[in-house]
């Protein structure tokens, strides 16, 4: 059995209890070294075999898994944030299927919710946005053209943009076109929940310069939308006049 485990965004306390237990019991851990905090590995057994997948191919990863599973060892594949978002786990699972190797996926705290917590905001506000768009700009990995940032920005929904801070100028250009305005709040959160976390606040007009002067070119969430600044309506759920299953309104 192999477990795909979400390590959370950085801070080691932000892994699930199940994820931590699996790490403690693992005989083999293959971790995504470029983004996962090495502190997680302190919880592994002394004789646990550690592999940094940053320098491995998909095939090499699967080989390590296969050998481990054949030897009846407990294998953990440790991914950053939540494994189901830009985790490249599907290709691993499909290969495991061809080899009849069983697996489970243990969710994690994604960096997009961690970043929103860091700025102490809420993505979903009545009358502002009830939708969160998780996306990225195309890079070496293409993005379907219907999902181009300019098209998505037209919805004016709350956005969390992954894997894109290096391309901040192109991101901003597309968003301004889509929104039809540069007066839209943006928060860039670098290394959310890590000790060297940085929060840069601005608008589409000035965020590019701020990001460049702070030399942020990786590991950042770009959060965009009016949920960051401005008015909203209070929720119905906690309104004194609102009746629901568990509470009668006045
Ligand atoms: N599965 C991960 C995403 C992996 S893709 C998740 O759920 O968070 C890698 C991208 O995630 C980075 O380029 C960056 O945009 C974002 N990211 C990962 N960890 C981050 C963190 N601690 N703070 C800000 N962004 C982060």
Throw out a few tags for this protein.
2 domains, 5-stranded mixed β-sheet, binds S-adenosyl-L-homocysteine, Cobalt-precorrin-4 Transmethylase, domain 1, 25% helix, alpha/beta
State the CATH architecture of the largest domain: 2-Layer Sandwich
The protein's oligomeric status is single chain
Helix vs. strand class = alpha/beta
Largest sheet: 5 strands, parallel
- Let me know the CATH homologous superfamily of the largest domain: Tetrapyrrole methylase, C-terminal domain
Which kinds of small molecule does this entry bind, naming each only once?
Answer: S-adenosyl-L-homocysteine
**How many strand units?**
10
Strand content is 15-25%
What is the name of the CATH class of the largest domain? Alpha Beta
What's the arrangement of strands in the largest beta sheet?
Answer: 3-2-4-1-5
Description:
With 250 residues, this protein is an alpha/beta fold. It folds into two domains: 2-106, Cobalt-precorrin-4 Transmethylase, domain 1 (3-Layer(aba) Sandwich), CATH 3.40.1010; 111-224, 2-Layer Sandwich (Methyltransferase, Cobalt-precorrin-4 Transmethylase, Domain 2). Helices cover 25% and strands 20% of the residues. It is built from seven helices and ten strands. The strands form two sheets. It has a five-stranded parallel sheet with strand order 3-2-4-1-5, with helices on both faces. α2 (58-70) crosses α3. The protein is globular and about 60 Å long. The structure holds S-adenosyl-L-homocysteine. S-adenosyl-L-homocysteine (SAH) binds at residues 9-10, 35, 79-82, 85-87, 110-111, 115, 162-163, 189, 191-194, 219-221.
